[in-house]
């Protein structure tokens, strides 16, 4: 038994950047090719390219660029901003996963008891005054 989080960064009102788009960007960077990245994810090239255009439009910056020769055969790579965004997303996601794992362990470890609702210090003082006034 383990926790599973689904996290998105939302651009505007609609576009969600999550694990799927992050994986596509990682594979583009590793393979140097959108075609190869899409094939590895069992996506069509057209769908992957549309995915990227939609992301770039929503984010307001380019995530990918053609390879050094600049033609379709020269491959594709992430832009500096694309690499930076991906690195920040991965760091953000890892931090959340670590926090979730700690909270999960505290909540589900053998012998763990549900946290009891504890009154705040201010509510204890109010209760004491109310008891004193009732006497």
Put the structure in a nutshell.
This protein has about 140 residues and is mainly alpha-helical. The protein has helices at about 20-30, 35-40, 45-60, 80-110, 120-135, and strands at about 10, 15, 65, 75-80.
Can you put this structure into words, describing what you see?
The protein has 135 residues and is mostly helical. The protein has a single domain (9-111), classed as Arc Repressor Mutant, subunit A, CATH 1.10.10. The chain has five helices and four strands, in the order E-E-H-H-H-E-E-H-H. It has helices at residues 19-31, 34-40, 45-59, 80-108, 121-134, and strands at 9-11, 15-17, 64-66, 76-78. Strands 1-2 form a two-stranded antiparallel sheet. It has a two-stranded antiparallel sheet with strand order 3-4. The radius of gyration is 24 Å and the shape is elongated.
Q: Note poorly predicted spans.
A: none
Cα distance spanning the termini: 53 Å
Strand order of the largest sheet: 1-2
Main β-sheet, in a few words? 2 strands, antiparallel
- Tell me the Rg in angstroms: 24 Å
CATH architecture: Orthogonal Bundle
> What's the number of helices?
5
CATH superfamily: Winged helix-like DNA-binding domain superfamily/Winged helix DNA-binding domain
Structural class computed from helices and strand pairing: mainly alpha
- Whole-number mean pLDDT: 84
- Percent helix: 55-70%
Global geometry? elongated
Counted up, domains total: 1
Query: Could you give the count of β-strands?
Result: 4
């Amino acid at each position: 038994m383990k926790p599973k989080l689904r996290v998105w960064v939302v651009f505007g009102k609609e576009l969600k950047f999550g694990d799927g788009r992050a994986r596509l960007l990682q594979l583009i960077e590793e393979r140097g090719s959108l075609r190869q990245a899409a094939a590895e994810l069992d996506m069509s090239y057209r769908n992957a390219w549309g995915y990227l255009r939609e992301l770039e439009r929503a984010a307001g910056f380019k995530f990918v660029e053609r390879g050094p020769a600049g033609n379709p055969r020269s491959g594709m790579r992430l832009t500096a901003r694309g690499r930076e965004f991906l690195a920040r997303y991965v760091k953000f996601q890892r931090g959340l996963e670590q926090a979730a794992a700690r909270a999960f362990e505290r909540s589900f470890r053998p012998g763990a008891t549900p946290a009891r609702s504890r009154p705040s210090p201010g509510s204890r003082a109010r209760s004491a005054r109310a008891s004193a006034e009732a006497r």
